[in-house]
Specification:
about 375 residues, Cytochrome Bc1 Complex, Chain D, domain 2, two-stranded antiparallel ribbon
């Protein structure tokens, strides 16, 4: 994932993902429908079923194949990492670290987001540089600081496993290829969806779905707290990017391996001065537009109670910290936020809303048998 800048930008050598993107063309159009169709700024909405691209329909066989690949350490260079190493089912598909885990001897540079509801996101990654789950799936495999596996080698490693060969034939009518591997993984990810969250029941008219405090918190979220200016609709996200100036993670300064990762990603993103880059440029890496300097995607807030620590670099450990951050008006020098002046009780109610309303039923995942 991380190894590309605007992965679908033709300036980058990313033939696989470009092909996949062209093949499946979901992304923008569908996301617009979801955001615009479900709500306007300020109001929240119930979660519809996730969009599925016409080129990659869901089938039970494909979902199971994708699940096996998701948990299979063969997808990493030294056989130590699977997707589930950093997206751990028991931790709401995050790894619970501020800065995510990494391939042995290297360091990652960002927080691993949950994969729950990633099926709805119009653009993936903290800077939005991947357009679809299909396009995204091969990035971590190739990424030198994540799974570090050459994709030609990936194909051969999967093609020597008779069970996989048989499963790909059944599901796709052909042999394992990188595109099909990505399609199967994406199909599995599309099953990771929040269902039946208290917010959805509340919005459907069931007042008792939220406690009294959470209902007051909902009022603050959509009112005095101004949260729903950016976190709205079914995903509680505007699908946009904002520079809130979250403080840098001090590990970044202490561990030169993080700087190496940052420079590497920046170089692949055609960032000319990548060698002197001292901080995470956020969305700027993709657009090279000054207004996107240190802007990050507005994340969904669904499942937020389960996905600490928060922000692109995991700098805020708890929901209380997040609320204090917004109450102060965000990080130094930002122009996106202003101080809120919330009382202690209002902060408490807001936290109760975030903690109580947004988690769906548990997604029971059993680790499949790996061939
Ligand atoms: C070494 C840790 C690690 C591994 C292994 C890993 N990921 Fe990730 N994943 C991350 C990090 C960190 C990010 C955020 C990167 C960024 O924004 O630049 C991420 C982001 C994502 C996203 C985007 C989510 C969103 O909301 O934008 C998806 C989807 C994803 N990973 C799927 C996978 C799949 C599929 C695999 C296996 C093929 C995988 N990941 C392996 C750490 C990892
Ligand atoms: C100007 C738009 C904007 C407003 C207003 C806003 N947010 Fe956010 N929010 C964001 C962005 C952008 C991020 C991601 C920042 C980053 O990763 O550095 C974020 C991150 C978060 C996160 C962490 C999510 C995660 O998975 O790490 C939480 C929780 C959150 N916001 C809650 C709130 C609450 C509560 C309010 C109201 C008090 C609020 N936000 C107001 C844009 C906004």
């Amino acid at each position: 994932m991380n190894i590309s800048g605007g992965s679908s930008r033709k300036s980058l050598r990313r033939p696989d993902s470009v092909r996949i993107a062209a093949l499946l063309r979901i992304g923008a159009a569908m996301a617009c429908l979801l955001f615009a169709g479900s709500a306007t700024a300020g109001s929240l909405a119930r979660l519809p079923p996730p969009p599925v691209p016409a080129g990659n329909p869901q089938t039970p066989g494909k979902i199971l194949l994708g699940k096996k690949l998701f948990f299979d350490r063969r997808l990493s260079g030294d056989g130590t990492m699977s997707c589930a190493s950093c997206h751990i089912p028991d931790q709401a598909y995050t790894d619970g670290q501020d800065i995510s885990q990494s391939y042995p001897t290297t360091r990652n540079w960002r927080n691993a987001p949950t994969l729950i509801n990633a099926a709805y996101a119009g653009a993936l990654f903290h800077d939005g540089r991947a357009a679809s789950l299909e396009e995204q799936a091969l990035f971590p495999v190739m990424s030198s600081f994540e799974m570090n596996l050459n994709l030609d080698f990936l194909e051969e490693k999967i093609r020597i496993v008779p069970e996989y060969v048989a499963a790909f034939r059944k599901v796709f009518g052909g042999e394992p290829t990188r595109e099909r591997i990505a399609m199967a993984i994406a199909s599995f990810e599309r099953t990771l969806v929040s269902s039946n969250a208290p917010l959805d029941r509340f919005l459907a008219g069931d007042e008792t779905a939220l406690s009294r405090e959470a209902r007051k918190g909902y009022g603050i979220f959509t009112g005095k707290g101004k949260c729903a200016g950016c976190h709205f609709g079914a995903l509680l996200s505007d699908g946009g990017y904002h520079a809130l100036n979250v403080p840098e993670n001090p590990q970044d300064r202490k561990d030169p391996r993080i700087a190496a990762t940052r420079r590497f990603v920046a170089k692949l993103s055609q960032y000319a001065e990548y060698r002197t880059l001292e901080e995470d440029p956020g969305r700027y890496l993709v657009t090279k537009d000054r207004k996107d300097w240190k802007a990050f995607r507005t994340p969904t807030l669904r499942e937020i109670a389960r996905t600490a620590p928060y922000m692109h670099n995991g700098m805020l450990a708890t929901l209380e910290d997040v609320i204090e951050f917004f109450d102060r008006g965000g990080g130094d020098g930002n122009r996106a936020l202003s101080p809120l002046g919330l009382t202690g009780e209002e902060k408490h109610d807001l936290k109760t809303f975030l903690a109580e309303a947004l988690s769906g039923d548990d997604i029971a995942t059993t680790v499949p048998e790996i061939p």
